[in-house]
Design goal:
This protein is of the alpha/beta class and 321 residues long. Helices cover 32% and strands 22% of the residues. It has helices at residues 24-27, 42-59, 101-106, 111-130, 145-158, 186-196, 250-268, 287-292, 299-304; strands at 2-5, 8-11, 32-33, 36-37, 66-72, 77-83, 89-95, 133-141, 162-166, 170-171, 177-178, 183-185, 202-207, 211-212, 221-223, 231-235, 319-320.
Length: 321
């Protein structure tokens, strides 16, 4: 990827499209590699990756003729507006801890439009910041209750606006168990969970049973929709070293649990699987892939979770992983 020409290092542009944006915490040790220095400070990587993501999201299927972008790298804010060939604005987006009035004007909004947007943004932003989300944790026997309590702490550590209700453990119907495989049919268990869900908010079932769905040997978890799901079930079985005939490692086990829980909550909040293999939203097809990724959301996914920015998804397919 990096080659040397007359004593100087340069980037091979042909390979740039294959690069993966790394989470900020992972880029920090890599800011200097040999004589190559990253041209972008890690703290500014977040806003730029979100800009690229926003453009990529809307360019496909739209008749875009002009793109206007304004960025303030000092306070990590940006405004983006796309126009068709007739000069009609067909999309706009902005990110900022405070309302980026000047940036919106720079991408083509007049004073009256900026005031209208600011008033709407203020209402939405305040609502999102104060909104408490309800998450019901349903232990499904057999299950290690001490691990479930650890999960409560993990969620509170990362997601401050969640109200968590821990229910009493219950048994799943025996008909979900495939005795020949020794596994629970996860899609049937998921539909059952949906049928007993009696509260608003999200429902997460946790079990020590191994899970599978048709055409798959196993799944770590399954949820009712790909994004903005409401119900999910996940298994602790394959997160333990003992499943692989290895000595137990509690710290490693809890790290795997944290990754799975954050991944599922990401789907609850509207995130899809991430192509960044270091991101916690990356799809894990094996325990090795799960171990390879971090417990952090990459800059792109972190940006989508920020209050004051609404991202709409319409995919309603059942999802696992």
């Amino acid at each position: 990827m990096i080659s040397r020409d007359d004593g100087e290092e340069r980037i091979d542009l042909k390979n740039l499209e294959r690069l993966t944006v790394l989470p900020i915490r992972i880029t920090e040790p890599w800011c200097k590699f040999s004589r190559f220095t990253l041209p972008i400070p890690p703290e500014r990587l977040w806003i730029l990756t979100n800009l690229v993501h926003a453009i990529g999201d809307v360019l496909s299927g739209t008749n875009v003729s002009k793109v206007k972008i304004s960025i303030n790298l000092d306070d990590l804010s940006m405004a983006l507006a796309l126009y068709d060939e007739n000069g009609r604005r067909i999309y706009f987006d902005f990110i900022g801890s405070t309302f980026p009035e000047k940036l919106l004007e720079e991408v083509g909004f007049n004073k009256e439009e900026v005031v209208t947007i600011r008033n709407k943004w203020k209402v939405i932003s305040e609502k999102l910041k104060s909104q408490q989300l309800l998450l019901v944790l349903q232990p499904l026997l057999p299950v290690d209750i001490s691990t479930v309590r650890e999960i409560v702490r993990m969620i509170k550590d990362r997601f401050k606006n969640f109200t968590i209700i821990l229910k009493e453990p219950i048994k799943m119907p025996e008909k979900f168990l495939d005795s020949g495989r020794g596994q629970i049919r996860a899609d049937l268990a998921l539909n059952w969970l949906k049928s007993i869900k009696n509260s608003r908010g999200f429902l997460l079932g946790i079990t020590d049973h191994d899970l599978y769905i048709p055409n798959y040997n196993f799944v770590f978890n399954v949820q009712d929709k790909y994004t903005f799901s409401k119900v999910s079930i996940f298994s602790l079985r394959r997160l333990r070293q003992s499943f692989y005939n290895l000595p137990e490692n509690r710290q490693l086990f809890l790290e795997r649990v944290r990754k799975q829980v954050y991944h599922i909550i990401g789907h609850f909040l509207g995130l899809s699987d991430c192509p960044n293999k270091f991101c916690v939203m990356s799809y894990s097809n094996s325990i090795l892939e799960l171990d390879a990724k971090s417990t952090e959301f990459c800059p792109r996914c972190e940006g989508l979770l920020k209050p004051g920015r609404l991202i709409l998804h319409q995919n309603t397919n059942q999802n696992h992983g």
